[in-house]
Amino acid sequence: MAEASTVRDVTMKQRERVREAGAAIEDGPERARWVVGLSLVLDDEPLIALDRATGHGFRLTMSGVGDNYQLQTLLADRLIGEGLVAGQAPLDQWVAAATDASPRLPMTNPVYQRLRLSDGHGGYVYPEGRPWDIPLLDGVRVIVLDPPRGAYGWSAGRVFTQMLPALTVDGTMSPDEAAHWMSRIAPAREE
């Protein structure tokens, strides 16, 4: 177990050096800015999703998710699409664009938000942001799920066209564990 921890620490230090180098060139040419975005992509990152309406909680792991638009689509697919959370599941072509098909959708058939996300501290999770931006709560990224407000859509399924994402539901929390996490979250702030 200590060996896995050491490897993770070394990998995190290497990523931090890449992030620092990317930040130094972020104001440079357009292609150079992609270095920052790529360096902020999380791999094998634990994620907790809490459904505010029911109090249910889920443990997930994400890798290769480039932005929060993509995260929203994948969360809706894994949670609503599998019947774990109430709501309207995303269309198959939206999920395909977020995973392994052409990432662009016509404006006549954009992806529509199926969940409104806030973090464990009550802040709105902006679709334009990245999973990296979601602040930690007790050492893990926590997403709180609410119904969407209105019809908000976008036409890109994913930012990094050659990167295949993974978002797996590792399990449903026990009622006691979910209640513990629900007691830790802040109310959603209006933004």
Features:
single chain, 191 residues, alpha+beta, 2 domains, six-stranded mixed beta sheet, two-stranded antiparallel sheet, 34% helix, 20% strand
Short description:
This protein folds into two domains: 1-39; 42-184, no CATH class.
Structure characterization notes:
This protein is of the alpha+beta class and 191 residues long. It has two domains: 1-39; 42-184, no CATH class. The protein has helices at residues 2-25, 30-39, 68-80, 92-99, 175-184, and strands at residues 45-51, 57-63, 111-112, 116-119, 136-137, 140-146, 153-154, 166-172. Strands 1, 2, 4, 5, 6 and 8 form a six-stranded mixed sheet that branches. α1 packs antiparallel against α2 (30-39) and α3 crosses α4 (92-99). The longest helix is centred in the N-terminal third of the chain and has 24 residues, at 2-25. 28% of the residues are buried.
Secondary-structure blueprint of this entry?
Blueprint: H1 2-25, H2 30-39, E1 45-51, E2 57-63, H3 68-80, H4 92-99, E3 111-112, E4 116-119, E5 136-137, E6 140-146, E7 153-154, E8 166-172, H5 175-184
Parallel strand pairs: 1-6
Antiparallel strand pairs: 1-2, 2-8, 3-7, 4-6, 5-6
Helix pairs in contact: 1-2, 3-4
